[in-house]
Amino acid sequence: MEKYVLLAMFSQVLLTLTVMVVMGRRRFSAARNKTITMQDFATMQLNNAGDDVHIAGRNFINQFEIPVLFFVACLAALQLNAAGYVFITLAWGFVISRVIHSIIHLGSNSVKPRYYSFLLGCLLVLTMWVLLVMRVFAL
């Protein structure tokens, strides 16, 4: 069972690294097109960069916010031997919600579906934590 939790965690890591590559490509494309200069990177004042550059940067930052709670929950589940079928399903649901969120954010950036995918991920992580607390306190 533990291997499926680890695979979900690895998938989230791959998503983060994929978003990092997208962000880098967009930034260097803006520099190549002279929208921003290489010196702008010294202070990260990318004010003249296009929306696509800012959106990719924001999505990359998103990968270090709620996913932190996901990683800690997964590590706790592994340590407590609490990674059953429900937990694994929730973990994979979270990763899928993050992939959908990133596809929307980096693509059409349609706010409503992006929000719903974000909210779903948050609810899945909350449920993972509730399961862990119930397991620890035998509720």
Automatic annotation (TrEMBL):
Keywords: Membrane, Transmembrane, Transmembrane helix. It is found in: Membrane. The keyword Transmembrane helix applies. Gene3D superfamilies: Membrane associated eicosanoid/glutathione metabolism-like domain. The chain crosses the membrane at residues 6-24, 68-95, 115-138. Its main location: membrane. InterPro entries: MAPEG-like_dom_sf (IPR023352), Membr-assoc_MAPEG (IPR001129). Pfam families: MAPEG (PF01124). The keyword Transmembrane helix applies. This is MAPEG family protein. It comes from Pseudoalteromonas neustonica.
